[in-house]
């Protein structure tokens, strides 16, 4: 029977040790996408929960379903963008687009929205635009750095 066990030694003798060190150094430089995607996911969770936080479930029934769906979509896009930033950097742009929709949604979806609904939607939308665009920019920059480092 063949000996398939590998002797345990230090990593200095590994043939790809230089490449692994360079890859680790590249991954640790610059800001981490998770630091932007986590607040974006929280914005999505707030958007989904805002009808109950602001108590407009009775006065704006169409906005309740709208906020739950859009909030869940923003949170899902943020989580997916953080899971694989190099391949899913455009998901941040999707979250930013949903943020732009959140800004105009009270007048399009709602019926005679009050000031609380309008202010909440504008603030939530603005945060989603800023954080989504930042996630997309960071993801695209990391993807571009990864492509340029290949030979």
Describe what this molecule looks like in 3D.
Helices cover 72% and strands 0% of the residues. By secondary structure, the chain is mainly α. Helix 3 runs antiparallel to helix 4 (90-108).
Write the layout of secondary structure elements.
Elements: H1 17-28, H2 34-53, H3 61-83, H4 90-108, H5 115-149
Helix pairs in contact: 2-3, 2-5, 3-4, 4-5
Organism: Streptomyces chilikensis
Pfam families: SPW
Protein name: SPW repeat protein
How many β-strand runs? 0
Computed structural class: mainly alpha
Largest sheet: none
Helix content: over 70%
> What is the chain-wise order of helices and strands?
HHHHH
Number of helices: 5
Brief digest:
The two termini are 40 Å apart. The chain has five helices and no strands.
Observed structural traits:
151 residues, mainly alpha, 5 helices
